[in-house]
Amino acid sequence: MLPEISRVRHEDRTKDEQIVYANDQFVCMHKLSPACAHNPRLGIEDYHRFFLRFYIPREILSDARKKADRVIVMTNGLDEINHYSLYDELGSRLASRGIISVLLPLPDHLNRHTRFRIKNPSYRQLTSKPSEVILNEADMFYIRFNQYRDEIEELLNHIKGKTDCVKPQNSCFFYKNLFSRNVRVSYLGYSLGAAMMLCAFLENEKRLNACFLLNGAVNLKNVNAERLFDQKKWDKFNNILEKYFSDKRKDVLKDRLFEGIVLGEYTNPSKELLKEHGRRILFLFGGRDQMISHDVLQQIMPTDWGLGMMVLPGINHFLAIDEEWKKWVNLVADLVVSFEENAQKETITKTDLLKISETGAKSRSKKGTKNIHDTILFERANLLGMNPEVIHAKMIEKSKMKEAIKTSSPSDLRIGEILVATNQITADELLQAIDIQTEQGLTRKRKEKIGRILANRMRVVKLKHVDKVVKNFEKENI
């Protein structure tokens, strides 16, 4: 996008939707925040009345029947006021790869700043920075944190179609038209916005897919603020904020996350959530970032577990004006697309399945006992998009094969399917396992069922020898 397009400007806040830029790949448009689109009582200059910036692929807009099944919600860093450049770079590239993205600005930033919100701003309203407000009034940071939390949750509810205002007669029907019922929502935050996004993601992780953090300012105490303002002022701000928060803190997840992620008091909830959902979170740091070092991640990284991190060589903190960043932005967009696609896919090893099967066999020996391992396998098979019935393939040693077959159950059959789909056994190994099973005196009905399942499953996972599988069972059934 052209630099001129990326400049923040005064816009008509009486209009709900405005096209900013369009080409043959995507459309960039502004839409009033859900908080104001259905609330006529808000004044034109109210700070709740602002524009979301959407980047929508043409292929979705050109087909009335097509709806988006993926979206990435982005937010900005501290003191970004005049330019959307970084988000235009990311949004345009994600749109060209088929993913909608939307920028939800932090309070008092970009088109939410008084410079662009007030019709006749004073000198102070023209020149003030958001950082000046929070440095002088540390309590405002926590207030803005809660405000942003509510705003992003409201946007999430609109995208998911969970609000009453998403009706044909309302402007919020825009979301119903644009997004599918099962849309995957991911978050992406930059700098200070990354801390906000990580808290929001961990609080609502059941409704979300993945979280991306660019030069993420987790633990404000570790931020080297000298590039922006006096470090002593920043340290004083942190001390006042911590004291203010301790007086307001409640024993709720929102505050525990603020305490752990933003203030750096790494309590158990933060560590446990980061460990449980760590493979859905990706940190990207600049190797030359002098404000936020990737070393800070060591403080929140779950012990003996880790977190996803990539350090981009030669990149500094201010990505929008970094020439080196322009060399990496396409790769980052590809990485985001790939990570988003695979964030919730299960990874299951042979060892894991062996343990589950062995303990599951013991549990099944007790009649009438519900086997929790069968439930686990069923859920994982569903995550992999598979029909939970197939053969117990070569998962355990041949010496244990006879015993395994004697106690075979639907959960045993699921294990084989998962192994095949995750390419942990070959087609030949599967066929060998079939031969062993057919020697155990399986009934004709059982063989026919296994043959049908195998043929169908092997087509789905694109393995070879489908014909051989079917012929083998036909011979056995004659």
Automatic annotation (TrEMBL):
<dbReference type="InterPro" id="IPR029058">
    <property type="entry name" value="AB_hydrolase_fold"/>
</dbReference>
<protein>
    <submittedName>
        <fullName>Uncharacterized protein</fullName>
    </submittedName>
</protein>
